[in-house]
Structure prediction request, 200 residues.
Amino acid sequence: MGGKISTSNNFPVRSESIEFLISCMKIAMPNATGEVFRWTPKIREEGLKESRDSPRKRMILPIHRDQSALVQRMVNFLQPGTFVRPHCHPREWASETMHVIEGALGFVIFTETGEIAEAMRLGSGEWVDIEAKVWHGVLALEPDTIILEVKRGPYDDEDKQFAEWAPDESDPGSDAYREILEEAVASLATASEPSVRKPG
Prediction:
């Protein structure tokens, strides 16, 4: 599959009431504390429940103790129906690694103008690493998908740049955009071959 994906300009503008709900929405669990963090079944269940209950259908558990940490580590719990809007990390040092702990993740790489350059399906135990300034987005392909993300910090207003050619996940009609991404992953990638496959 190729061609430029629909941009946010094709979607209705969000109302003020929707904006208010989004501003009040919980997007992350409290940061980990203490010198040592241990991944436990209890934390796993808490994170999955938060993601199932969230209108966004996902929840982040920051493992780094502070948003200014130079190494950002987080666990992301995702349910089908959620996607992370295409974005890049513009700082020169902002490489990123994503490791699938459970479930299956769709990982899509874009050109600067919004065309799909690569798409892959990552299953449990598989991971991907990208350099800074790579336009990318992710979506959950299976219930209770859990991924570990590691990226150079700090996390602030300059850390992430969202694509103007892609809708925000809360925009009306964004489900159609997510379905395009799902189709791209299904057609361009297989579970046994998560590496690069270019649309032709």
Observations:
- Residues 55 and 190 are 29 Å apart (CA to CA).
